[in-house]
Amino acid sequence: MAKFTYSLTIDDYLAFESFNIKRNKNVFFTYFICLLILANGVYDAVANKSYFMLIIAAAFIVAEAISTFYSVKIAPKKRINKTISLDASYLGQNEIILDDKAVEIKNIPAQNEAGTVCIYPYSVMTVIYETEEYYYFFISNEVKILPKKIIPDEYREYVKKTLSKNQNYMLVK
Fold it and tell me: Within the chain, which residues score under 50 in pLDDT?
C-alpha cells in the first residue's frame, strides 16, 4: 500500500488538457479536410485558371488555423481558470492511498470545513493512462490526475507495478 499527500497545480491541469488534445483524432481529420480543400483549390486554379476556389481554400485554412490555435492554446487555460475560480479545492491538498484493489483520494480540508473521501476500485475505472510525467485515472465522467514527480521514491516502483498489472492500464508515449 502506498500512502502520501499531494497538491495539484494549474500546470498539472494544463498538462492533462494537452494530453487530451493529443488523444483527440478530430484534429487529424481537420488537417485532412484542409488538405483536400487546398488540393481542390489548386486543381481549379491550374485546370480552369480560376483562383476563386484557391482563395476560398486559403481563407478556410486560415480560419481553421485560428480556431485550432484558440482551442489548443487559449480555451484550456480559460476553462481551467474558470473551474478553479469556482472551486479552489482543485488546488488543495489531497491524500492518496493506492493498493491492489483501489485508489482512495481524500481532500484535506481547511479548518472547520467538510472533506470528501472517494474510493475508486480499479474495476470502475474506464482506463488508467501512464505518460512520461503523469498517471490519469478515467472514472466515468471525471479524471483524477496523479503527477509522478510527487510520488515518494519509496513508492514509485510499487505504484508502477500495481497500476500496470490492471487490465485497463495503458502506457502512452
Answer: none
Three-state SS string across the chain, please? Answer: CEEEEEECCHHHHHHHHHHHHHHCCHHHHHHHHHHHHHHHHHHHHHHHCCCHHHHHHHHHHHHHHHHHHHHHHHHHHHHHHHHHHHCHHHHCEEEEEECCCEEEEEECCCCCCCCCEEEEEHHHEEEEEECCCEEEEEECCEEEEEEHHHCCHHHHHHHHHHHHCCCCEEECC
Give pLDDT, residue 121.
Answer: 95
Using CA atoms, how far apart are residues 143 and 1, in angstroms rounded to an integer? 22
Dist. CA 16–CA 142, nearest whole Å: 12
Question: Is residue 133 within 8 Å of 147, Cβ to Cβ?
Answer: yes
pLDDT digits (tens, 9 = 90+) for 22-34: 877 777 788 888 8
What's the whole-model pTM score? 0.79
Query: Residue 103's CB: how many other CB atoms inside 10 A?
Result: 24
pLDDT of the residue at 158? 95
- Cα dist. 98→33, 47, 71, 122, 169 in Å? 44, 65, 34, 10, 15
pLDDT of the residue at 91:
85
